[in-house]
């Protein structure tokens, strides 16, 4: 006889074994097979209280889904705004870094930049689902633009001058295709193919690289014009290609500089952004869970107890303690590392040693959109080898009067050097380096706002950065509950740095918590096995 087992019991055992009940709930048909749909879990959580730490996307999404199921939720968020790293800087926005003053943005009304996430890949289905469910309108984000520049400081013939991305991209495609075509034509490649197959490959290389009949790379209109074609006899004038040796010696192929964004899975077009700022996603979530959210509540201690979790926190009225049946902790690990807790040793080790990236952005408001008017750049990214690293042009407000571009978006050592500057020094640096590419900067500049995430209170880093060793030795500890505390956030996924990581982790954690607490009393019939 097969022992009957309730769904609740099965799910509880699955959660303990696998660290999440997500696959088990799929197997039982308790949720849709495609996660990019409305959550549909059976059972309810009435009478159960879930304390959620952190009012970013992961925390608010968890509360949103738990509230649907009847749970009582409380979100403790240290800031006076929701969203966490989903932060769009606009007029009146405030920000504070460790040891620094409270900064207030002076951007004009309607001007903004996304200091945190700014892009949504088309294949991040769950992010797109929540935007649709929450009624957040999207627009295309132009991540790839051949009109932007490469700018390399150095001693090469192409150094210290801005070179259109289309010129470098097409010259390199041409030269590499020429080399391959010549090697293939001379039987220098050890390939098992017929002459007919080889001929087809040669035709592909001619098309890909813009080669002539002699398999030589020649400049064409695909890399742009010196003089654009027009009416009458104005046929247009094409520039000669840059020499391969000049491209190489000018540093334009250095691995930390040359960028082919359209080849990267996460950055392939089409990409999207929330109309009016990415924080509109957080604002839409906040409206749904407003009764659960406590702003200005800084967590001081997390304590597992026999029948739940106790969380000590401080707000403007003093020190308090709140108790829940379960706690979902979404705090960034560098912040959690400095909070008292009684977690197991493997969890504490993961919290203390998972590295986070150093990163920052500087938004610059200009009184004229000169990049559009003078240089025909509409969205996209200019790449440099100096500490600016990248300049992002806005994918909104085209042909408007004013605009805000991201004058610096950098990482690691470059972000540390710029982040160690004062706010005034950062602005000066961004203007000086940016003026090497856009001399219009100094005349058109109005004001700036900078955010260094690894120095930002309640973040202390951009996002988790896992190597193979961290994934093997630290990451697993964060995927299972520590008694009555569950962990969620981008750092508990393989989608670190992306909003999708917050959404995916929230759903996975909600499923695990619900399988543990919800009253799901459906039982399978007893079966007698006669053999």
Describe the structure using short key phrases.
disordered C terminus, 16 helices, globular, disordered N terminus, 21% strand, 531 residues, alpha/beta, five-stranded parallel beta sheet
What does this structure look like?
- The structure is a single chain.
- The chain is α/β, with parallel strands linked by helices and 531 residues long.
- It contains 16 helices and 25 strands.
- The strands form 8 sheets. A 5-stranded parallel sheet has the order 14-2-1-18-25, with helices on one face. It has a 4-stranded mixed sheet with strand order 10-9-21-22. The chain has a 4-stranded mixed sheet with strand order 17-16-15-19, with no helix packed on it.
- Helix 1 (7-18) packs across helix 16 (499-517), helix 3 packs parallel to helix 8 (279-289) and helix 4 (125-134) crosses helix 16.
- The longest helix has 21 residues, at 165-185.
Question: What's the structural blueprint in terms of helices and strands?
Answer:
Blueprint: H1 7-18, H2 22-27, E1 49-53, H3 57-68, E2 72-77, E3 88-90, E4 94-96, E5 102-104, E6 112-114, E7 120-121, H4 125-134, E8 138-141, E9 149-151, E10 162-164, H5 165-185, H6 195-209, E11 225-227, E12 237-238, H7 244-249, E13 271-274, H8 279-289, E14 293-295, E15 298-305, E16 308-315, E17 318-324, E18 326-329, H9 333-336, E19 340-341, H10 345-353, E20 359-366, H11 370-373, E21 381-384, E22 390-392, E23 403-411, H12 412-419, H13 423-435, H14 441-444, E24 445-452, H15 468-473, E25 485-487, H16 499-517
Parallel strand pairs: 1-2, 1-18, 2-14, 9-21, 15-19, 18-25
Antiparallel strand pairs: 3-6, 4-5, 7-13, 8-13, 9-10, 11-12, 15-16, 16-17, 20-23, 20-24, 21-22
């Amino acid at each position: 006889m097969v022992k009957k087992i309730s769904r609740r019991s099965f799910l509880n055992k699955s959660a303990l074994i696998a660290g999440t009940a997500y696959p088990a709930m799929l197997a039982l048909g308790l949720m849709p097979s495609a996660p990019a749909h409305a959550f549909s879990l059976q059972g309810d959580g009435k009478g159960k209280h879930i304390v959620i730490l952190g009012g970013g996307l992961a925390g608010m999404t968890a509360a949103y889904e738990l509230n649907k199921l009847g749970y009582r939720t409380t979100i403790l968020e240290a800031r006076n705004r929701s969203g966490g790293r989903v932060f769009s800087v606009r007029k009146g926005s405030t920000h504070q870094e460790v040891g620094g003053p409270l900064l207030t943005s002076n951007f004009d009304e309607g001007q903004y930049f996304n200091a945190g996430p700014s892009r949504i890949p088309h294949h991040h289905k769950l992010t797109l689902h929540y935007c649709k469910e929450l009624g957040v309108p999207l627009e295309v984000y132009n991540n790839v633009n051949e009109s932007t520049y490469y700018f390399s400081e150095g001693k090469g013939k192409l150094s210290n001058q801005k070179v259109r991305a289309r010129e470098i991209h097409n010259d390199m495609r041409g030269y590499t295709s020429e080399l391959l075509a010549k090697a293939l034509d001379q039987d220098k490649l050890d390939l098992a193919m017929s002459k007919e197959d080889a001929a087809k490959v040669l035709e592909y290389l001619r098309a890909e690289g813009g080669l002539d009949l002699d398999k030589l790379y020649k400049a064409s209109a695909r890399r742009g014009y010196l003089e654009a074609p027009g009416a009458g006899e104005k046929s247009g004038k094409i520039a000669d290609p840059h020499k391969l040796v000049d491209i190489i010696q000018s540093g334009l192929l250095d691995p930390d500089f040359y960028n082919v964004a359209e080849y990267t899975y996460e950055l392939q077009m089409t990409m999207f952004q929330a109309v009016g700022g990415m924080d509109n996603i957080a604002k839409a979530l906040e409206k749904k869970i407003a009764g659960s959210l406590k702003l200005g509540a800084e967590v001081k201690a997390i304590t597992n107890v026999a029948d739940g979790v106790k969380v000590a926190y401080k707000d403007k009225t003093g020190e308090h303690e709140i108790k829940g049946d379960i706690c979902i902790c979404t705090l960034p690990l560098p912040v959690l590392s400095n909070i008292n807790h009684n977690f197991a040793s493997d969890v504490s080790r993961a919290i203390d040693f998972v590295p986070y990236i150093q990163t920052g952005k500087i938004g610059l408001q200009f009184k004229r959109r000169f990049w559009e008017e003078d240089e025909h750049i509409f969205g996209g990214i200019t790449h440099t080898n100096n500490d600016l690293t990248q300049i992002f042009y806005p994918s909104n407000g085209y042909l408007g009067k004013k605009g805000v571009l991201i004058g610096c978006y950098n990482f690691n050592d470059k972000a540390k050097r710029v982040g160690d500057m004062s706010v005034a020094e950062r602005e000066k640096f961004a203007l000086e380096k940016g003026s090497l590419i856009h001399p219009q900067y100094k005349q058109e500049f109005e004001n700036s706002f900078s955010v260094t995430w690894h120095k930002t209170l309640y973040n202390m880093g951009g996002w988790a950065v896992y190597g193979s060793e961290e994934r093997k030795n630290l990451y697993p500890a964060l995927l299972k509950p520590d008694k009555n505390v569950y962990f969620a956030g981008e750092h508990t996924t393989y989608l670190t740095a992306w909003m999708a990581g917050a959404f995916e982790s929230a759903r996975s954690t909600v499923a695990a918590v619900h399988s543990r607490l919800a009253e799901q009393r459906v039982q399978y019939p007893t079966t007698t096995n006669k053999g």
